[in-house]
Design brief:
7-stranded parallel sheet, about 40% helix, binds guanosine-5'-diphosphate
Length: about 325
């Protein structure tokens, strides 16, 4: 079994590749819930939604979020009623939020609600929220503290960022199954997600960091691999660079390596970062360079296949060895 720690967009792209090259039943996802919000009174979990949609084949690959072919009539109607419309929820997407909200109102936990929805949508992989407690990513800016979605979607991440914190994290517990999924996995993959606001909240839940240390201590190596969301000193998309700098990390593969240094065995980065990769290898980290920008379904599958061939080749559907594009020696 492979355990993947993931946010929404970059994570979903990678998971889209993974499900093509290995049996979905062998994938457990631990997903960020720091972006969760109440929207029009409904509980929305943007990263769980994206992962659920990609695994059920419903994701709009064009937008990278929401349901493919969705319409936005309700959003329009809410606008006419004077309600906020900055967070875009499609009409079919609303069904997810309605059902989740009802399940939560009936007393189910977020992991139970997620499991019910996954099962109804025929998702074969296991999707686990990082925690059933509310952990909120808060972005400190000159205009005050914003929720992640206010900062990212409503204000287009234009505000300077002083710091990021995860409200509620210290009192949270990992959701049932999370620690076991990490410690018993054949390998753990940190998806090419934002290290601060997608992977950061997961690592902030007490017990998860320790589970990664336990996983690393097991004999098979490399056990824990991360794919860099930073390519050539810039994020492929979004505010990861600004947020990394706000948290004292350089926007580079070295910054990504530093964010995960306690438990990382292998960093997968882009061929464009070959020189920086050489420097990281001198510090003893194993680094593999390949093409990591995923534009097409083939790109996604190729990256997933290559990562898997390095850490858990037995799980590949097609066991013909992938041809490494660049030398992967430390
Ligand atoms: P969010 O919750 O929507 O922010 O989702 P993620 O954190 O999973 O995804 C955002 C991150 O994905 C950004 O930091 C991007 O740089 C990264 N990303 C997006 N597409 C790609 C890609 O094709 N390749 C790589 N390596 N990173 C990507």
């Amino acid at each position: 079994m492979i355990c993947v720690l993931s946010g929404g967009t970059g994570g979903a792209k990678f998971v889209d590749g993974l499900r093509q090259v290995m049996p979905a039943e062998e994938i457990t996802l631990v997903v960020n819930t720091g972006d969760d919000l109440l929207w029009w009174g409904l509980y929305v979990s943007p990263d769980i939604d994206s992962i659920t949609y990609v695994l059920s084949g419903m994701l709009s690959r064009e937008r990278g979020w929401g349901v493919k072919g969705d319409t936005f009539l309700c959003l329009q109607a809410m606008g006419q009623l004077g309600e906020p419309t900055w967070f875009h929820t499609g009409d079919r997407d609303l069904a997810m939020h309605l059902l989740r909200s009802r399940l939560l109102a009936e007393g189910k936990t977020l992991s139970e609600a997620t499991a019910v929805i996954s099962q109804k949508l025929g998702v074969k992989a296991r999707i686990l929220p990082m925690s059933d407690s509310r952990v909120e990513t808060r972005v400190d800016t000159p205009i005050g503290e914003l929720s992640f979605e206010e900062y990212f979607v409503q204000r287009w991440y234009q505000d300077p960022v002083n710091a990021v914190r995860f409200a509620g994290a210290s009192d949270a517990e990992p959701a049932p199954g999370v620690v076991d999924a990490i410690t018993s996995a054949d390998a753990v993959i940190i998806a090419p997600s934002n290290p601060i606001t997608s992977i950061g909240p997961i690592l902030a839940v007490p017990g998860i960091h320790n589970a990664l240390l336990q996983a690393k201590a097991r004999i098979a190596k490399p056990k824990i691999a991360a794919i860099s969301p930073i390519v050539g000193n810039a994020p492929v998309a979004g505010p990861a660079g600004i947020l990394m700098q706000a948290q004292g990390l350089p926007c580079s593969i070295a910054g990504v390596a530093h964010a995960y240094e306690d438990f990382l065995d292998l960093l997968v980065c882009d061929t464009r970062d070959a020189r920086a990769a050489d420097m990281l290898r001198q510090s003893g980290l194993r680094v593999h360079c390949t093409r990591t920008v995923m534009r097409t379904a083939d790109d996604k599958a190729a990256l997933a296949r290559e990562v898997l061939s390095l850490i858990s080749p037995d799980l590949l559907k097609d066991k013909t060895p992938a041809v490494p594009q660049v030398d992967s020696q430390p």
